[in-house]
Design goal:
The complex is a heterodimer of chains A (about 400) and B (about 160). Chain A has about 400 residues and is α/β, with parallel strands linked by helices. Chain A has 14 helices and 11 strands. Chain A has a single domain, classed as Thiolase/Chalcone synthase (Peroxisomal Thiolase, Chain A, domain 1). Chain A has a 9-stranded mixed β-sheet. In chain A, strands 5-6 form a two-stranded antiparallel sheet. Chain B is built from 1 helix and 8 strands; from the N terminus they run H-E-E-E-E-E-E-E-E. Chain B is globular and about 60 Å long. Classes of the chains: A alpha/beta (about 400), B mainly beta (about 160).
């Protein structure tokens, strides 16, 4: 140690941060709209809900994952006008699949630091431009020397992770499939949903093998879509609504791209991100203090994996909570009441719309048919991505 | 089940086709150069041990990511054990494979590291977590100093 310092992360902020509006487009495998147009629709809706005009926006954060999906190199700049950022301070952030929750964290910096009083956060993904399949874009995220010559497909590294999770805790595929059944059914109440359906555990277990143990209905689809939220300082929130939803904690953490060198049964980087966010939000017992959760669910086992990373279940306990109905929309800890990525769709960064935006809608009691049965005060949204290495976490509360 | 995928071919929409025409030349780096030359020329496997904390990286690296100390090369057997495996039905482009392939995460003996590679000379139903495996290399004259010089790992 070369310098004297006070250990740990500081949470000094200039002002509190509230969310006052959110919007999202429908999620579909292929949409006619360009990425700019999708961004425009999401922003329009968020501004309308907030009661603001584009001229009220001080700064804009764009979240969008690999350039290779849209096929426009430096697509942050390309999407700028659709995001309402012409001639404004603008920045694009991305951490792969973690982007949908990382972009609101970046929006939080803008407002909490006092640099902006009104920050618009927009997330966009247009995966359908990429051919022969969006999967092909993932060919190029691997280590070019060690991994790529083996011709990896992204699904099979998740199959390795799912296998490891099942092996360590002795979990059956049936228990994991329940997540897909729950989320696709929850999505029936989501107006933007792509894969809402009533399915059974047998449907999942009999669906086509992708990379065993992963089968077709264990996986969320590629999608096009956009989502947006408006983040503001307290004095702005007060003028717009009596019931703002506050960002009480943010956390993020990354492990290395040496993903083979960690035990895949537990997402330590998610646990680290959650620890940071909970400390900031003064949460000591997440299972008791969190009322509703939107962990990232691109695969059914990932919801369980992430519940454990978030401390919402003990290691290996998430499948039990699921089987007992605790995580149902009318359960004691509703998880993915939106329908999640499995049901609503997975336009990578735009999953903002079913993660942070959904928790905002739940805590603002604006979730309509998706509103959870229990009374809610505090919720958590989380995303995950890159080479199975990033955890991004936001804690929201309707009490300051 | 009724799903709502309406547009099957985006060419039905007003569109243009495009390509980003670039290609890349990747170097294997200092540690990679040492590792792959040893593999190509001598059929031997190398790991790297942190001079400070003793953590043994495989594949080798010139630095320890935990304390940023230098490492030194150590020879290892190349054998290991399966900690997870997947039976892949689709290739890297999402095209159906003719025959499913088994990919495994292999913990390398004498190191703290793991790699992914194919399993061979074994059927999916006979693979289990904890299974000991050893590498099968290409004949020396065909080796190029690439990870594919290892054809696959087989039950030891």
């Amino acid at each position: 140690m070369m310098v004297e310092k006070v250990k740990g992360i500081k949470y000094h902020k200039k002002q509190d941060v509230a969310i006052v509006g959110a919007g999202m487009t429908i999620f579909r495998r292929r949409l006619n709209e360009t990425g700019k147009e999708l961004s425009y629709y999401a922003v329009k809706q968020a501004l309308e809900e907030a009661g603001l005009d584009i001229s009220d926006i001080d700064m804009v954060v764009m979240g969008s994952a690999p350039d290779a999906f849209d096929g426009v190199h430096m697509k942050g700049e390309y999407l700028l006008d659709g995001a309402g950022a012409s001639n404004k301070p603008y920045v694009r952030v991305f951490v792969g699949g973690g982007t949908g929750v990382f972009a609101p964290i970046a929006g939080y910096w803008h407002v909490a630091s006092g640099l902006a009083d009104v920050c618009l956060v927009v997330c966009e993904e247009k995966m359908s431009s990429s051919h022969p399949h969006p999967q092909s874009a993932f060919k190029y995220i691997w280590d070019p020397i060690l991994d790529r010559p083996l011709k990896p497909n992204l699904i099979w590294i998740f199959a390795l992770e799912m296998r490891r999770y099942m092996h360590v805790h002795n979990i059956k595929h049936e228990d994991i499939a329940l997540v897909s059944v729950k989320n696709k059914a929850n999505a029936l109440d989501h107006p933007a949903a792509q894969l809402a359906a009533k399915i059974t555990v047998e449907d999942v277990l009999n669906s086509e093998p992708m990379a065993l143990p992963v089968r077709r209905l264990d996986v969320s689809p590629p999608s096009d879509g956009a989502a947006a939220i408006v983040m503001v300082a307290p004095h702005i929130a007060r003028q717009l609504t009596d019931e703002p939803v506050w960002v009480t904690g943010v956390g993020w953490s990354l492990d290395t791209t040496w993903w083979t060198n960690r035990d895949l049964y537990f997402p330590r980087y998610v646990a680290e991100a959650a620890k940071m966010a909970y400390k900031m939000a003064h949460i000591t017992d997440p299972r008791k203090e969190i009322d509703v959760a939107e962990p990232y669910d691109p695969f059914d086992y990932k919801e369980l994996h992430h519940m454990e990373g978030l401390g919402l279940a003990k290691k290996g306990e998430a499948p039990i909570l699921t089987r007992e109905g605790v995580t149902a929309r009318d359960g004691d800890l509703p998880v993915c009441p939106s329908g999640g990525l499995l049901g609503v769709g997975n336009p990578i960064a735009a999953s903002l719309g079913v993660k942070v935006a959904e928790i905002y809608w739940q805590l603002a009691y604006r979730a309509g048919k998706r509103q959870v049965a229990k009374e809610v005060t505090t919720g958590v949204a989380q995303a995950w991505g890159d080479l199975m290495q990033v955890g991004t976490v936001v804690v929201l509360s309707n009490k300051r | 089940m009724v799903f709502t995928e309406k547009i099957i071919d985006p060419r039905e929409l007003r569109h243009v086709e495009g390509k980003i025409e670039l290609y890349w030349i990747y170097t294997s780096g200092e540690a990679g150069d040492y590792f792959f030359k040893k593999l190509r020329d001598e059929g031997k496997f190398t790991a790297a041990k942190c001079k400070k904390c003793g953590y043994i990286f495989f594949p080798p690296r010139i630095y320890c990511e935990f304390d940023f100390s230098e490492t030194e090369y150590v020879e290892v057997s190349g054998e290991g054990c399966v900690v997870a495996y997947a039976v892949a039905y689709y290739d890297k482009n999402g095209e159906k494979l003719e025959k499913p392939e088994i990919y495994a995460l292999i913990e390398m003996d004498g190191t703290n590291g793991r790699i992914i590679h194919l399993l061979g000379e074994v059927e999916p139903e006979d693979v289990c977590i904890g299974m000991k495996v050893k590498p099968v290399l290409k004949p020396k004259e065909e080796r190029e100093g690439k990870i594919t010089d290892i054809l696959y790992f087989k039950p030891a």
